[in-house]
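Input record, target 12 of the design panel.
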């Protein structure tokens, strides 16, 4: 393999890798891991909230029950019960507050050193309703506290409180367990993701791209497979067209070359009488002209295929252009005694004059070639509601229905047995078709065998050409 071709293939491979750095399998795996991670974080947050609310509920229940026991004991034994509680290392803080808000007793600090508690929410509620509660951060112990207060029989308020874990501290407490569980889940999820994505990708890797619709795979891939099947059929049609075109080109080029070579060889070998030399020279000239015309038509068609036409568009009077073409075709029409008639009106169209000339010329030339002796060709050029139009009608041999869709194909001839007699390269109508595509025009054919042919070239008006 040539070195430059190898380098080109390697460069294409590297460019392909640059454009596709990630595989579908890895992308699915990463997506699954991201989904799992997000789900796990949400689970962690929700679990922390649930645990916080559960712990707070237990704390409230226990503290309220404890407060009721202490209240009952004080109501029976008196306030000295609180003095006896000082020796107990209880987590619960107990405070007695009089009706004025003064602290009479506190299990943690000297009551006289504490500020007035009359404005505390739980104290005010207890004095008003018999009990009260509140959840706030204590300025004394600098932590979140739950307070519960009850009204004693002597009119004072008994308040109990205990430190409560915050939501953040609750979340931090479960971090070790959740972290270990998360690592195990991620490892398990990664293994399952690889296994599952392998199963998902396998049918795609085993697709039969030559016959896409024969695959039994996910329904989501049906539009893609249908598009691939359509492209395969289009590629096959293009390939067949290219093969047919190559074969026809070879045949069409070989025919005049063979004739020229044969006539020249006969003349070279002295097998032609001097009186017949002009006849042989004329035959060689005709075949050479036919060959030149064929090459010119192939070049024109190739340029139209590649859309490499560099001519600028200009205002062209289709009626005037048609009249010029009729004048150029008059000698051909005279040879077959075909009468050509032009009607219509001047109409301007913005297009490429050379291509418009070739389009109208080829249609009119065909109308003469495939007409009967003494026939008639009627041409109309003018404006319609849809835009400028040129119509060419003849009284010739006509075109069977089964051939009408193919007459614009390259080298396709309806009357193949007399194609050489009638002349032409078989590319004229193909040039017309490509010229119409270049100008956004529509071509329609109406023909009946033995009753003639009518070809219309409908050009788009300026209003229709403008985007809506």
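The sequence produced for target 12 reads:
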């Amino acid at each position: 393999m040539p070195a430059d071709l190898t380098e080109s293939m390697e460069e294409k491979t590297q460019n392909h890798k640059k454009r596709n750095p990630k595989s579908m399998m890895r992308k699915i795996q990463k997506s699954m891991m991201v989904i799992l991670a997000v789900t796990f974080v949400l689970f962690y947050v929700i679990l922390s909230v649930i645990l916080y609310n559960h712990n707070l509920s237990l704390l409230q229940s226990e503290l309220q029950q404890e407060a009721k026991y202490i209240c009952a004991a004080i109501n029976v034994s008196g306030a000295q019960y609180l003095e006896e509680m000082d020796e107990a290392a209880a987590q619960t803080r107990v405070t007695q507050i009089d009706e004025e808000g003064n602290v009479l007793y506190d299990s943690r600090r000297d009551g006289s050193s504490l500020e007035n508690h009359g404005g505390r929410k739980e104290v005010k509620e207890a004095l008003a309703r018999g009990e009260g509660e509140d959840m706030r951060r204590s300025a004394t112990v600098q932590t979140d506290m739950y307070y519960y207060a009850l009204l004693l029989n002597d009119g004072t308020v008994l308040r109990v409180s205990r430190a409560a874990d915050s939501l953040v501290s609750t979340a931090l407490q479960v971090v070790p367990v959740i972290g270990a569980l998360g690592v195990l889940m991620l490892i398990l999820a990664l293994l399952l993701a690889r296994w599952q994505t392998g199963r998902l990708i396998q049918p795609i890797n085993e697709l039969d791209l030559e016959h896409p619709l024969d695959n039994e795979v996910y329904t989501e891939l049906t539009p893609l497979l249908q598009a691939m099947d359509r492209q395969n059929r289009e590629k096959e049609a293009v390939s067949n067209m290219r093969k047919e075109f190559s074969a026809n080109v070879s045949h069409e080029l070989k025919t005049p070359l063979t004739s020229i070579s044969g006539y020249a060889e006969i003349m070279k070998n002295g097998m032609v009488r001097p009186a017949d030399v002009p006849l042989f020279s004329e035959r060689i000239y005709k075949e050479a002209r036919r060959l030149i015309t064929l090459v010119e038509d192939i070049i024109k068609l190739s340029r139209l295929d590649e859309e490499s036409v560099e001519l600028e568009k200009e205002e062209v009077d289709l009626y005037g252009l048609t009249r010029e073409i009729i004048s150029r075709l008059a000698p051909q029409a005279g040879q077959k005694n075909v009468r050509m008639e032009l009607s219509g009106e001047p109409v301007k169209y913005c297009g490429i004059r050379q291509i418009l000339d070739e389009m109208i010329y080829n249609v009119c030339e065909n109308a003469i070639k495939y007409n009967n002796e003494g026939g008639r060709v009627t041409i109309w050029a003018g404006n319609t509601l849809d835009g400028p139009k040129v119509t060419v009608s003849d009284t010739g041999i006509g075109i069977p229905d089964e051939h009408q869709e193919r007459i614009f194909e390259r080298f396709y001839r309806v009357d193949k047995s007399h194609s050489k007699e009638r002349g032409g390269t078989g590319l004229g109508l193909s040039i017309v078709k490509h010229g119409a595509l270049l100008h956004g025009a529509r071509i329609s054919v109406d023909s009946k065998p033995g009753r003639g042919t009518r070809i219309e070239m409908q050009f788009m008006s300026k209003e229709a050409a403008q985007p809506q």
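Residues 1-9, 416-426, 463-468 have pLDDT under 50 and may be disordered.
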